[in-house]
Amino acid sequence: MIASLRGHIQEKKPDAVVVDVQGVGYLLQIPLSTYYKVPEPGGEHFFLVHTHVREDQITLFGFDTRRELDIFRALISVRGCGPRTALTVLSGMETETLLQCLVRADVAGLSRIPGIGPKTADRLIYELKEKLSRYLEITPEAAPPGGKAALPADMQEDLVSALVNLGYNKAQAEKALAKVAEEDPEAGFENLLRRSLRRLMAR
Question: What is the pTM of this model?
Fold first, then answer.
């Protein structure tokens, strides 16, 4: 399974790029949100990769950010939403706008994406609100009170994962982390992890 690639851009199209990694060209299907960030041919770029395996083929999907990749994976977990549809959703609106549609349960907004009807939009809202909750919590409308900055999404995900791997359930981990992050959102990873563990152990 390929998780990431760094290489020079050989070809660049709105829906795909070819990346040269030490003489091997990898074809990556990409959304427009990633396309805008990719340099012109000859430039170097780093991609996070989702490897999609079927009986008859292996397809690579490339993304510029962890959030794009996580949204893509959440989308394809929804019944009736395959990889092509997921790329269409990511290409149809900015990720921040998509997240705000989920927060507001904006069926009409999602239905404006080609190929997404009201029923599919309803299903996406129902299923993605939980799967993408960590991103919904850091959108502007859901920011913490008092103007404090939220943790970077990648750091929050890694911290929760570390706590879950230590035996705590996800809800406990997220609650403890939210408390210590509210006290000091500028603290580093190790500091937040230690303080979250102390809070969990004090329960």
Answer: 0.67
Q: What is the mean pLDDT of residues 65-75?
A: 93
The domain containing residue 155 runs over which residues?
145-201
Identify the CA nearest to 83 among candidates 15, 131, 12, 11.
15
Per-residue burial over 127-166, b if 16 or more Cβ lie within 10 Å, else e, is: bbeebbebbbbbbeeeeeeeeeebbebeebbebbebbeee
Q: Which two tokens stand for residue 71?
A: 């949204």
User: Which residues, in sequence order, are CB contacts of 151 under 8 Å at separation 6+?
Assistant: 138, 159, 177, 181, 185, 192
Are β-strands 24-29 and 16-21 bridged in parallel, bridged antiparallel, or unpaired? antiparallel
Given a cut of 70, whether residue 179 has pLDDT beyond it is: yes
> What is the reported pLDDT for 187?
80
Into how many domains does the chain fold?
3
Domain C-terminal end among 89, 119, 136:
136
The rounded distance, in Å, linking the Cα atoms of 200 and 169 is 11
Bridging pattern class, strands 24-29 and 44-53: unpaired
Give the pLDDT band of residue 203 (cuts 50, 70, 90): low
Identify the top-confidence range among 57-61, 89-93, 100-104, 193-197.
57-61
